[in-house]
Design a protein that fits this description.
- The structure is a single chain.
- The chain is mainly α.
- 55% of the residues lie in helices and 5% in strands.
- The protein contains 19 helices and 8 strands.
- Strands 2-3-5-4 form a 4-stranded mixed sheet. The chain has a two-stranded antiparallel sheet with strand order 1-8.
- A hairpin with a 2-residue loop joins strand 6 and strand 7.
- Helix 1 packs across helix 7.
- The protein is globular.
Length: 515
């Protein structure tokens, strides 16, 4: 009887929420503009300890030795034979250039919400001329508010990344449709036909479930896709159905391993988070992997703090390969295998699962235990690829300048913490799969310590490391200044470290550089 009463109460509450949401459909609260920014993310951190007076560096000879040693680390992707990696690399070689665009949403050389709304209303008329099922027009007032937020978001991104192909973005905006999808449960989405569909129910449910600003953040995320996607003038020369940055979905390729859904979605969410100073609201696991890829490349002085999330604003895959310093076809293939592995792990593409069944006689998700083991098996190779890139960049950093010993220990610690969020050592099966990566990570760290001791007389890195071991620090203050980094990169490292500290309840403190 008690269970029945609880079910009735739960059902009543749910119905009440739906009624409340539906009741607001006739007049929605407009999404705030970017001027109404959410509060700045402030890390509640303290810096109490004085930095060490010991600094270290690497000689050119030792740096070359370490880089050669890192390049010899074998990375085994267990299912690379099913990835069609060469085809993926070939599919990344496309030409998205356009000589003349059909649309342009500028008026007198300026972008405005009013002009965008006019273009959208015209496009909507053509859209509804075919009487599409499940769609309804958006009210003019609400359409104007959405267009205003889109324009503000686009202008902010173009200001930050002035080399984005503006003509393509303006063309995409000029062909944009914005409609209600009365069947949709998601808050909003952009289709490959450049239709921004919004739900006339979940716009209000978003506020009920996730609080003020949730729907606004969703629309900003979708605007990132508007900037990412190719305009309808593009002709990639094959059966391309959709392009999001360097990720393309092909009609004539069943596997489609050059279309990494996790990558462009995480990029959109991360860019939205960067713009609003809010924590990611969706695709959080995908964002964590994107941050791991970004950490691998961030110590390269040629890469910005947001290198990975910005790549999908462009159509040039060389931005990806150059970010990772890929010089050979083997290095390119390894990186693509890493991206494919994360895509298989995070999106479970049916085409790959079928191919796996053809090869091994059963699906990887035949039962829960097999599926868990399969998912574990995908991770160590990805972590190894990221580790090799990170340590190459760390070695080059130590070659070109001295680092305070505490800064160095911090850089090693925060990277290992970032990898450990993906890997698990507390269960027998997970430990068995992940231990080879753990051992290779310890070995590489040991090689670096040996090289530092040889390059810096009197240095005992093991003693230093034991003093700095983050996992044993408890409530101690992390003693790192990171003054050698620009503020945006410094903030990235602090954010990642604080995220990890909160996640494992370490109570770790860091210097507060929040403005």
């Amino acid at each position: 009887m008690n269970k029945l009463v609880l079910r009735i109460i739960s059902l009543s509450l749910f119905v009440l929420m739906i009624v409340s949401a539906l009741g607001g459909c006739s007049k929605k609260s407009p999404p705030p503009s970017l001027e109404d920014k959410l509060p700045e993310r402030v890390f509640d951190l303290s810096w109490k300890a004085a930095p060490s007076d010991v600094s270290v560096s690497l000689s050119a000879e030792w740096a070359d030795t370490l880089r050669e040693s890192i390049s010899q680390i074998e990375t085994v992707y267990p299912y690379a034979g099913l990835y069609e990696t060469e085809e993926a690399l070939s599919r990344l070689d496309f030409d998205a250039s356009v000589e003349s665009h059909e649309y342009c949403v500028l008026k007198d050389g300026a972008l405005s919400a009013e002009v965008l709304a006019e273009a959208v209303k015209k496009n909507n008329e053509e859209f509804f001329a075919d009487d599409p099922y499940g769609y309804e027009p958006v009210e003019d007032e609400y359409l104007a508010e959405i267009c205003s937020l889109i324009v503000e978001t686009v202008e902010a991104v173009l200001e930050k990344h002035p080399d984005i192909d503006r003509d393509r973005v303006y063309c995409t905006m000029g062909s944009l449709k914005i409609v209600y999808d009365i069947t949709m449960l998601d808050f909003a989405q952009v289709t490959s036909e450049r239709v921004l569909t919004v739900s006339n129910v979940t716009a209000n449910m978003a506020e009920l479930y996730k609080g003020e600003g949730a729907y606004r953040s969703t629309l900003i995320h979708e605007t990132m896709h508007i900037i990412q996607i190719g305009c309808q003038c593009e002709d990639l020369g094959r059966e391309a159905e959709r392009r999001c940055g360097i990720c393309v979905y092909w009609k004539d390729w069943d596997m489609n391993h050059a279309d990494w859904g996790w990558f462009f979605e995480a990029s959109a969410e991360r860019n939205s988070s960067n713009l609003t100073n809010a924590d990611p609201m969706t695709y959080t696991y995908w964002v964590d992997y994107l941050c791991s890829f970004n950490m691998a490349v961030i110590l390269n002085e040629l890469n910005g703090a947001d290198r990975m999330e910005s790549i999908c604003f462009y159509s040039d895959p060389e931005l990806l390969f150059s970010a990772f310093g890929c010089e050979t076809e083997e290095e390119r293939a390894e990186l693509v295998n890493a991206l494919i592995s994360v895509n298989v792990l995070q999106t479970s593409p049916e085409s790959f699962y079928k191919r796996y069944e053809e090869e091994y006689g059963e699906r990887p998700d035949a039962d829960e235990e097999k599926h868990e083991a399969f998912r574990y098996s995908l991770k160590p190779a990805v972590a190894t690829t990221l580790m090799k890139t990170y340590y190459k960049n760390l070695v080059s950093l130590l070659e070109r300048q001295e680092l305070n010993i505490n800064d160095l220990c911090f850089l090693i610690n925060v990277f290992e913490s970032q990898m450990n969020q993906h890997l698990s050592y507390d269960r027998d099966k997970a430990e068995e799969v992940n231990m080879p990566f753990y051992e290779s990570c310890l070995a590489l760290r040991g090689q670096l310590f040996d090289a530092l001791e040889s390059s810096n007389e009197g240095l005992d890195m093991e003693s230093v490391w034991q003093e700095y071991d983050m996992s044993k620090m408890g409530e101690k203050t992390l003693n790192a200044a990171l003054d050698f980094l620009p503020d945006d990169k410094k903030m990235f490292f602090l954010e990642r470290c604080q995220w990890h500290a909160d996640r494992v309840d370490l109570g770790v403190k860091l210097p507060n550089i929040a403005k």
